[in-house]
Design goal:
With about 140 residues, the protein is mainly alpha-helical. The protein is built from eight helices and no strands. The protein has a domain of about 80 residues.
């Protein structure tokens, strides 16, 4: 009965992404990121005959979500000022650590008086990295 309404386990990060104050574009990119559905080279290789999986930016690491969003120079460029600005401490060393850190800070994200301001900051960070990658990587 997998796939019918009410039978799938809810993701722990669901409340971090799907909030009323979210901007749809931000939410969508963050959701694609959380679901590992962004069209990075390592994912595209599974569905196409793509041979080159090296990062379009640095040409020295595989282009996957971990590298693009957490290991690349571009990611550091975006995350460093964002993390300095936030009140919560978010671990952005890799995908798994970031998700665990977001879940750990879920109460902080949900209780923000600004109606999801922290959620928006997380989503904007993902969107900024993705947009910068799209403009620099092509």
């Amino acid at each position: 009965m997998h796939g019918y309404k009410g039978t799938q386990k809810k993701s722990e990060w669901r409340g971090i992404i799907w909030v009323r104050s979210s901007i749809p574009t931000h939410t969508f990119i963050a959701w694609l990121f959380m679901m590992h559905k962004l069209p990075v080279k390592t994912r595209l290789q599974r569905f196409t005959s793509l041979q080159d999986t090296l990062c379009s930016l640095c040409q020295s690491h595989e282009e996957d979500e971990d590298h693009l969003f957490f290991g690349s120079e571009l990611a550091t460029e975006v995350w460093k000022p964002m993390l300095d600005w936030w009140r919560m401490k978010l671990n952005v060393s890799n995908y798994r650590q970031c998700i665990e850190s977001l879940i750990k800070h879920r109460d902080c994200l949900a209780s923000e008086k600004g109606m999801g301001l922290e959620n928006l900051r997380v989503q904007v960070s993902f969107l900024i990295v993705w947009r910068k990658f799209l403009t620099k990587g092509t």
